[in-house]
């Protein structure tokens, strides 16, 4: 099992941010991680299922990650799921549809990630795939909790891919690796085993 925090996002010039190969890659990534996280706005706008799915993988998923919603002050409605859901908030109500045993509410102060990451670690979560949006991704960067960054950009130009990834991420990655992938390019930085949640928490303290 990988032991890291990974930030994953996709971008494109025409609004269609992904392609079949990238969907398969993302679902393969999802089944390798203990948990998938999104920000409260992504949860409310996109209603993501945050599952690894057979129709994308071409086979049954090996396992499912638990769900983590960094709700902050955003009220969130949580639909029932086969996996546990952690809702990290600072007091906003969330609606749990009568399936309270699947839901764990964890506190946070402002956008400080340390307390909720410590709590997730206490619940046995050792690896976290953060799938956006931009506000949450930037918090992980700023607070030093990103071990690996992976960005798929659907475009035909490598220069355009790097430019769009910089725009999406908000800054330049020093050790950026770029390779053709599917209908675009995959941009990756960091090392999968460089640092896990435990070491990340130690280093940030
Ligand atoms: N292209 C892609 O791959 C991709 C992936 C995901 C999402 N998206 C898109 O991104 C958009 C949403 O992105 P967004 O940037 O507006 O919102 P977001 O990052 O999804 O959510 C931001 C909210 O999360 C809450 N939050 C809780 N803990 C936080 C923390 N530690 N740091 C930062 N925020 C925290 C905050 O609520 P409070 O400030 O109220 O406390 C914040 O307003 C959607 O349109 C979605 O479709 C794109």
TrEMBL record:
Gene3D superfamilies in the cross-refs: Dihydrofolate Reductase, subunit A (3.40.430.10)
Assigned keywords, A-Z: NADP, Oxidoreductase
Record's keyword annotation contains Metal-binding: no
Protein name in the entry: Bacterial bifunctional deaminase-reductase C-terminal domain-containing protein
InterPro entries per UniProt: DHFR-like_dom_sf, RibDG_C, Riboflavin_Biosynth_HTPR
Keyword NADP in record: yes
Any one GO molecular-function label of the UniProt entry: 5-amino-6-(5-phosphoribosylamino)uracil reductase activity
Biochemical pathway: Cofactor biosynthesis; riboflavin biosynthesis
Organism of provenance: Rhizobium oryziradicis
Lineage of the species this protein comes from: Bacteria, Pseudomonadati, Pseudomonadota, Alphaproteobacteria, Hyphomicrobiales
Pfam families, A to Z: RibD_C
GO biological process, one term: riboflavin biosynthetic process
Domain Bacterial bifunctional deaminase-reductase C-terminal residue range list: 17-153
């Amino acid at each position: 099992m990988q032991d890291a925090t990974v930030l994953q996002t996709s971008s494109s010039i025409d609004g269609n941010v992904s392609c079949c190969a990238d969907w398969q890659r993302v679902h393969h990534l999802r089944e390798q991680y203990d948990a998938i996280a999104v920000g409260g706005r992504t949860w409310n706008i996109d209603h993501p299922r945050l599952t690894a799915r057979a129709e994308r993988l071409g086979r049954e998923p090996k396992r499912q990650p638990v769900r983590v919603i960094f709700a902050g002050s955003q009220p969130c409605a949580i639909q029932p799921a086969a996996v546990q859901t952690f809702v990290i908030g600072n007091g906003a109500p969330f609606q749990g549809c009568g399936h309270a045993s699947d839901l764990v509410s964890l506190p946070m102060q402002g956008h400080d990630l340390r307390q909720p990451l410590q709590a997730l670690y206490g619940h046995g979560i050792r690896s976290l795939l953060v799938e956006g949006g931009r506000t949450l991704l930037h918090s992980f960067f700023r607070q030093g909790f990103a071990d690996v960054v992976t960005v798929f950009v659907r475009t035909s130009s490598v220069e355009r891919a790097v430019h769009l990834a910089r725009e999406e991420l908000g800054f330049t990655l020093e050790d950026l690796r770029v390779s053709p992938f599917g209908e675009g390019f995959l941009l990756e930085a960091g090392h999968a085993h460089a640092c896990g949640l435990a070491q990340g928490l130690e280093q940030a303290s």
